Amino acid sequence: MTVHDTPGAVRDEDAFDPAAVHAWLSERLDGLSGPPTVQQFPGGASNLTYQLNYPDRKLILRRPPRGHRAASAHDMRREFQVQQRLRPVFEFVPKMLAFCEDESVIGAEFYVMEKLDGIILRRDLPEGLNPTPEQTRALCLQAIDRLIELHQVDVEAAGLADIGKGPGYVRRQIDGWCRRFERARTDNVPDCAEVMRWLQENQPEDVGACLIHNDYRFDNLVLDDSLQVIGVLDWEMATVGDPLMELGAVLAYWTQADDDEFLQSMRRQPTHLPGMLTRDEVVEYYAERTGRQEQVAKNGTFYRVYGIFRLAVILQQLYKRYVDGGTHNPIYANMWEYVVYADRQCRELIASDAKAAG
């Protein structure tokens, strides 16, 4: 029984003409007999991912979602070029094949890459995969190690220094996510004023500038049958920025076994399994391996609150797109509930931090 990640039927609102894609692609790649059949992967709350099935080859197509999009988001050329430049120095990036800027082909820019065939861990383990706690722990540590390796990439040598905006990353992130929340807020969520004010008033200086993925989760990792990481997917938000801000973002998705029922219901990856590190253990392991124990000890609550608030804004933006009719995908319909929860969670962390400080 296979446990490899498999796509399903294309949602009606996300469909495109396979013949048009084949005509464009066959002028750039040899040996394609088509048109291909097309399937869609179930993930993709942001950019959409499809599988092009040719008789002897499977390719992956990435395109932005339909409907309202932030002006700077979903830049397919940038996503393509980041991976193209990174692949020679970070082996876990898929091979890029072709970029299309002609929106008449499918109604948007897109790119095509080689498929990395393997296992992708989503909310629950695929049927037939039952790792021991020891295997799960080894996988967990390996996933963090790959993140640390990414943070150690020489961005100048890789030709990626230009994707960042220089010093001031922390400030830009806080300012930017606060603005995005205010634009996307709906009447059924709190104003998050206390949280945004605290983030503005307590932000530390940048601890460094490195390549960060910005959406690093298990469902963006590809594993082989021995549970070794062979690929990292979904580079649309990659940039040069502060590594501890990325760590905070990673923690926001990290639902552990003793979290409450609501967080368990929102879980997108199997970080609750026996053998998985807790959030505190993730922080401790990362800090020890990178020598950032002092910075984490001093500002750990800030990075945690930032990650939770950032995730709340992302989900609120997706919910707003659903409310505005930009998508009819029911996965977005209840995302506002996390914003309510996150506001309370952030305020509790802030209060606990203030109490600990005396």
Explain this structure:
The protein is of the alpha+beta class and 358 residues long. The protein has ten helices and nine strands. The chain has a five-stranded antiparallel β-sheet with strand order 1-2-3-5-4, with helices on both faces. The chain has a two-stranded antiparallel ribbon with strand order 6-9. It has a two-stranded antiparallel sheet with strand order 7-8. A hairpin with a 5-residue loop joins β7 (221-223) and β8 (229-232). α3 (133-151) packs across α8, α5 packs antiparallel against α9 and α6 packs across α9 (293-323). The model has no long low-confidence stretch (mean pLDDT 93).
List the helices and strands and how they pair.
Blueprint: H1 18-26, E1 37-40, E2 48-54, E3 57-63, H2 76-86, E4 96-100, E5 110-114, H3 133-151, H4 169-184, H5 193-202, E6 210-212, E7 221-223, E8 229-232, E9 239-241, H6 243-252, H7 261-266, H8 279-290, H9 293-323, H10 336-356
Antiparallel strand pairs: 1-2, 2-3, 3-5, 4-5, 6-9, 7-8
Helix pairs in contact: 3-8, 4-9, 5-9, 6-9, 9-10
